[in-house]
Every structure is written in structure tokens, then in C-alpha cells.
Design brief:
339 residues, six-stranded parallel beta sheet, eight-stranded parallel beta sheet, Rossmann fold, 14 strands, 2 domains, elongated
């Protein structure tokens, strides 16, 4: 993870909002905003409104599909409504603010004064290099802001927002290694974690890499005493009925095993997350960090755990641990953390 000491600016969201606005009227063309996943787009609203009210074109790239955070904030803090969410590149692009996803942005031929790539408010779909290539190839003549968990463009200005509005630390993942075949059983320590969660009316989400492992893990988890509660579910990506998710979310204490890593859940309270086979090549550090940020603790309560269970620790797992620890360290050193 790269925090540039030379250009680093860190602070609360109002301070950062003003820093971004000041940058936007300067000569530099690239700005990295480094933030926790699922942080607010509030810090971008003031700059976007300055552009659109001066009849300048802004492109906002996000993988959000519903309840887009930027639109919610614009509606909340302004009367501006001259925006379009583009689902088809042939749609009218005359509005001052255009919102679309990465794939649509790669096919847009229009020019924009300001381009913002929001890689924070949706589960990561593209690598840092893919984001960088899109910006360099399509929008190299625009001023560009990259809102991500790390610095995408090196040797450019970094602004760091190490906390969310609740000023709570991000959960740091706990890495546990085992020699036990996870297709057949789990270490006793993991059984203890699950048992603790169920005992205290918490949910457990167990992520695995593929459909076969969903079935394998479900088969032996369902043999443990947890099943007496009739609260063990599985959900297979693109196959299972959505009612499984509905039932799971309604129950106080429940377990679900799934290979759907991206779209199932937003913020989670009273929930613990486990990733089995975390050393599988399908998983990467960005995904682990975003999972850590999904857990939202209730005031005065135990916040939860993110456990990465693997046969061996990988660079991806270690990087996720470093990134979350650095965010918490930054928030603590700047006096922004509320514990």
C-alpha cells in the first residue's frame, strides 16, 4: 500500500471536501483519494457542483447499480438534477453530469472536464491496472480523481480519508491456517468461533471459491449442533433462489455458505464473516479489505470478526491486513478515531 508522505493530506470529510475543491481549480490533472471501502461520496459533491454549475461536463464512474451514493448525496445537499445514469452508450449524454460503470465508460467518446472513478462504493470488479489504463487511454486530457483504497497513480497528490462518518476503526482480518481438509471438516478453533456467534444471536457468512466447495462445506457444517436451530443455508451463485437470502437476513442467528462474493450483502450488523480456502487464487486483497469494511458495529457492542481460513498465508491475505492496519494507524495518529 502506498501512502505518499510528500503529498499526503489527511483529515475529516469536510476538510477533505475543501482540499478536493482547491485541487480542482489548480494545475494538476490527477488526484488520488485513498479511503476505506463504502465511504461516502459526500466529499466529492462540492467539487462536482462547482463544475456542473459552471456548465462543465463531469463523468462519474461507479459499479453501483441501485441507490447510487453520489445521487443520494446530490439530492440531499443540492437542487441539481441535470444528471443521467447511462445504461446504454447510445443514450443522450447532453447532461452535465454523466454516471456510468467501467465498461460503459470505456466506450464513451465524449470529452469531459472532470472524470471521477469511484472504486470505493461497490465491491471491486477491476484491478488497479485496469482502472489506470482506462483513465490514461480514454481521459488523459481530463482532470481525474481516483477514489480507491490505495494510491492508483504514483507520484501524484494523495488525500487520505481513513475513517467513515461513524469514526470507527475498520475490522482487521484474522488469518488462521490449518492442515485439515476444509472440504471435509474445520479446525476446532473455527467451530468455537461459529458456536460463539450463534450463541450470541449473530449471523455467520462463510465464503468459499466455488459451487463444489459450497456443497462440501454445507454438508459437514449441517452435521454440527448448529443445525438444530434449522438455520444453516447455502446459496450458489446464479443458481439458488433469492428467497434463501431473504430468509437468512430475517433470522437473528444463522449461517450461510456461498460462492457469491460480490453482490449479496451491503452493510452487516451482528455478523461475522469467514472466508474458507482464503489462499485460493480467486480471492484477492482488495476483496478481503472490502469484506472487512462491510461489518458495521452497533454502538457499545462487539463489532465482529473477519476470519481468513487457509492452508497457508498468502501475499494477498497479508496485504489486506497491512491496508486495514494502516487505515487504523492513520486515523489514530490524526486524532480522527472514536473508540
Amino acid at each position: 500500500m502506498y501512502f505518499s508522505k510528500k503529498t499526503r493530506i489527511s483529515g475529516d470529510r469536510d476538510k477533505i471536501s475543501n482540499c478536493i475543491l482547491n485541487w480542482s481549480i489548480g494545475d494538476e490533472n490527477i488526484l488520488n483519494i485513498i479511503s476505506l471501502p463504502y465511504n461516502s461520496s459526500y466529499i466529492l459533491v462540492k467539487t462536482i457542483l462547482r463544475y456542473v454549475y459552471n456548465n462543465k461536463k463531469v463523468l462519474y464512474i461507479t459499479e453501483e447499480e441501485y441507490n447510487i451514493d453520489l445521487i443520494l448525496n446530490i439530492k440531499k445537499y443540492s437542487k441539481f438534477r441535470n444528471y443521467s445514469y447511462i445504461r446504454d452508450v447510445n443514450m443522450d449524454l447532453e447532461n452535465n453530469l454523466i454516471i456510468c460503470n467501467h465498461k460503459k465508460a470505456s466506450n464513451i467518446k465524449n470529452n469531459f472536464h472532470l472524470v471521477i472513478y469511484d472504486d470505493v462504493n461497490s465491491f471491486p470488479k477491476y484491478s488497479n491496472e485496469e482502472i489506470k489504463q482506462l483513465i490514461m487511454k480514454k481521459f488523459n486530457k481530463s482532470k481525474c480523481i481516483i477514489y480507491s483504497i490505495e494510491s492508483i497513480f504514483k507520484n501524484k497528490m494523495d488525500i487520505i480519508l481513513p475513517i467513515k462518518e461513524d469514526k470507527k476503526p475498520i475490522i482487521e482480518p484474522r488469518i488462521i491456517t490449518t492442515r485439515i481438509d476444509m472440504n471435509r471438516d474445520i479446525p476446532f478453533l473455527i467451530y468455537d468461533y461459529i458456536n460463539f456467534s450463534i450463541k450470541f444471536n449473530r449471523k455467520v457468512i462463510i465464503y468459499v471459491p466455488d459451487e463444489i466447495k459450497v456443497k462440501n462445506v454445507f454438508a459437514y457444517i449441517n452435521k454440527y449442533p448448529f443445525r438444530k436451530e434449522k438455520n444453516v443455508y447455502y446459496y450458489i451463485k446464479d443458481k439458488s433462489n433469492e428467497k434463501v437470502i431473504t430468509n437468512f437476513t430475517k433470522i437473528k442467528k444463522a449461517i450461510i455458505i456461498t460462492n457469491e462474493f460480490h453482490y449479496l450483502f451491503s452493510y452487516l450488523t451482528d455478523t461475522d464473516i469467514m472466508v474458507y480456502f482464503a489462499d485460493d487464487e480467486k480471492f484477492n486483497y482488495k476483496e478481503f479489505v472490502y469484506l472487512c469494511s462491510k461489518i458495521k458495529g452497533n454502538e457499545g457492542k462487539y463489532r465482529g470478526e473477519v476470519i481468513l481460513l487457509a492452508y497457508q498465508e498468502t501475499k494477498q491475505m497479508e496485504e489486506a491486513k497491512i491496508i486495514t492496519r494502516n487505515f487504523n494507524k492513520e486515523a489514530w495518529e490524526t486524532g480522527l478515531l472514536k473508540i
